[in-house]
Amino acid sequence: MDKRDFLKKAALMTSATILPSATWAFSSADKLRTAHIGVGGMGMEDLKSISAHSAVEVTALCDVDANNLAAAQKMFPKARVYTDYRVLLKEMNDAIDAVVVSTPDHTHAPASMMAMEMNKAVYCQKPLTHHVSEARAMNQMAKDRNLTTQMGIQVHSFYDYKLGTALIQSGIIGKVKTVRAWSPKNWGTDGPQPMGSDPVPSTLDWNLWLGTSADRPFKEGVYHPGNWRKLLDHGCGTLGDMGVHIFDTPYNALALDVPFTIKNKCRKPTGFGFPENNIVTYRFPETEYTTKKFKWVWYDGPGAPKNHKDLRLPNKEELPDQGAMFIGEKGSLLLPHFMQLPKLIVKGKYVDIDLSKFSDVGSPTKDYGKESNKHYHQFVDACLGKDECSAPFSYAARLTETILLGVIAGRFPNKTLHWNNETSKFDEEEANQFLEGDYRDF
Ligand SMILES: NC(=O)c1ccc[n+]([C@@H]2O[C@H](COP(=O)([O-])OP(=O)(O)OC[C@H]3O[C@@H](n4cnc5c(N)ncnc54)[C@H](O)[C@@H]3O)[C@@H](O)[C@H]2O)c1
C-alpha cells in the first residue's frame, strides 16, 4: 500500500471531519489536550516533560506494550488508554489538540501523518521519519495545514547548543571548512540475521508494533524494546539516531540545506541490519557561514572517531565521548555532546570566550532538569499561540533528509552518491529504491 492509500484508508476509518486549519481552534484557549503514542522508553520522558507544563491535560495514552501502557496510566488515571493509535485518533478526535509520537522510527510518519490529516499539532521524536519521501510528505502536510510541529531534538533548545550556533554565526572561527562529528554508540549489527522465532509476550501486540512495516516473526531481544534501531526495516542506525542530535547544531548554525554528494565508508550490506561502523562524508552547497568546499564527516560505532589531526586537543586532552568539531579559517570550535560549553581552540591552544557578548541566548547552566523541558514547553506554548517552535517540520524534514541520505549511502559502501534536491532523486538510479518503503496493510 502506498502512503496515499494508507491515508485514504485512515481518513475513512477515522471518518473525522477535516477542518481547514483557519477554522480549527483548541477547545479552550488556555489548555492543550494531548495524546501520547508510545509511552515506554523515550515516550515516558516525553510524557513527563510535556505534562510538566501547567497548561497540558494528558487526555489519551497509547502503547502496544501493556506494561508500558499501565505504567503511564498509573501516572494519568483519567486518560483514555489504547493499543492502536488509529482507534485512539478516531475515538478521541474531538478531545485532543496535540499528538506526541514516540514510537520506533518506522511508525513516526504513519502516526504523525494521520494526526496531521486531522489537523492536530504534532511533536514527533527524531529522526522525523524512516524514509526520505515521508520527511518531504510530512513537511508538505504541516505547511499546507499550517500546523504547529516540533521534532524531538530537545538539545536544540539547550543553552550550550544555542551558544554554539551564536558563536559560529558571529564568525569567531571565520568561515567553516569542515565539521567532524562522532558517536561511538553501536546501533548497528554486523552479525548474521537471527533465525527462528520466539513466542510473542502476552503483553505485546506484535502486529501493531510492526504496523506498516513488513510482517515477520517475533524474536526476543532483537526488536522490542530499543534494539529495532539497529535494523533496516525499523530504525536508522547510529547516524539516524545520534547523528540527528549531533549534526543539528552544525546544520542550524551553518544554515545548510541538503547535501549534493554523500559517501559512506562501511562494510557490505547484509540486508538486515545497519553497519556497526560508518564514516560518512557529505558535501554541501556553500552558505554564508561556510567555505566553498565545505564538508561534514561523521564517524560512528565502536572506536569512533578515527584519529585525525583536526580532532587533536590542546594539552593532549582526550576528546569528549561524543561531539562535533567545527574547523574554520581562524580556529576550531569543539561542541561536546552534551551539557558542556563549547570550547574555542586557536593555534593549538584554548582561548577564553567572552560569554557576555552572547547573553541573548541565555546563561550557562548545569541544570539538566530545567534545560530538558524547554523544547517541549516551547511546543506547548506555540500550540497556545505564545511562542514559536525552533525545530518545526520545515526544519526537521531537511535535517532528517540529510541524515537519511547518509544512511542510504551505507547500502553502497565507498561509492559517492549524487543527490538532486530539485528532483529529490539520486543520479545513481539503484539508490532511489531506498527513498521510500511499502506500507503493509495491518
Ligand atoms: N530525543 C532523544 O533524546 C531520544 C532518546 C531516545 C529515543 N528517542 C527516539 O524515541 C523513539 C522511541 O525510542 P525508544 O528508545 O524509546 O524505543 P523503545 O522501543 O524503548 O520504546 C518505544 C515505545 O513505543 C511503543 N510502541 C511501539 N510501536 C508502537 C505503536 N505502533 N503504537 C504505540 N506504541 C508503540 C513500545 O511499546 C515502547 O513503549 C525513537 O524514535 C527514538 O529515536 C529519542
Order of helices and strands: HEHEHEHEHEHEHEHHEEEEEEEHHEE
The overall pLDDT, averaged over residues, is 94
Helix content: 25-40%
Distance between the terminal alpha carbons, to the nearest Å? 10 Å
Question: Which architecture name of the largest domain does CATH use?
Answer: 2-Layer Sandwich
What small molecules accompany the polymer chains?
Answer: nicotinamide-adenine-dinucleotide
- Radius of gyration over alpha carbons? 22 Å
What would you note in describing this structure?
With 442 residues, the chain is an alpha/beta fold. It has helices at 3-14, 42-51, 66-75, 85-92, 108-117, 132-144, 159-170, 206-210, 237-253, 368-383, 393-409; strands at residues 32-37, 56-62, 80-82, 98-101, 121-125, 149-152, 176-183, 261-265, 278-283, 290-300, 323-328, 332-336, 343-346, 349-351, 417-420, 425-426. The strands form two sheets. It has a ten-stranded mixed β-sheet with strand order 14-13-12-11-7-10-9-8-15-16, with helices on one face. A six-stranded parallel β-sheet has the order 3-2-1-4-5-6, with helices on both faces. The longest helix has 17 residues, at 237-253. The model is unreliable at 14-25 (pLDDT under 50). Nicotinamide-adenine-dinucleotide (NAD) is lined by residues 37-43, 62-65, 68, 85, 102-105, 107, 125-126, 152, 154, 208-209, 211, 224-226, 241. The site of nicotinamide-adenine-dinucleotide has 29 residues, from helix 2 and helix 8.
